[in-house]
Amino acid sequence: MREHRFAYRVPLYEVDMGQAVYHGSYYHFFELAREALLSDLGFGYQNLLARQRHLAVVEAHCRYRQAVRYNEALEIITSITEVKSRSLRFRQQIVKADTGQVATEVNLTTVCINFEGKPVSLPEELRAKVEHWLAETIATKSE
Description:
Thiol Ester Dehydrase, Chain A; alpha+beta; five-stranded antiparallel beta sheet
């Protein structure tokens, strides 16, 4: 499975009084990493917005293993596990850069919606770029 890696350092505004990241804030980190993946694929989120589309999270299963704290260096690893006509499924892990330990992981499904909130097809250009990126992994493994 192909992985995209995104480096991030926890800012002060994401932590509570105990200096640990609030559980809901992990979704900010996951979103930043998904945006970085789309940008690195050559189809940044602005391309979706220009087409009056958005990727809405419709399902998420998150497992918190270890607290993440202020100023910790993290690596967020993102994989696309499924591509359908209207949706993308992601698997993401937040890994502590100093230890390599998985702190948090999520499996989530996004559905492409228009600005009226109705499900629509993924832009063909995005789908093609995702499928090409995934196919590169298969080609690399077989060589």
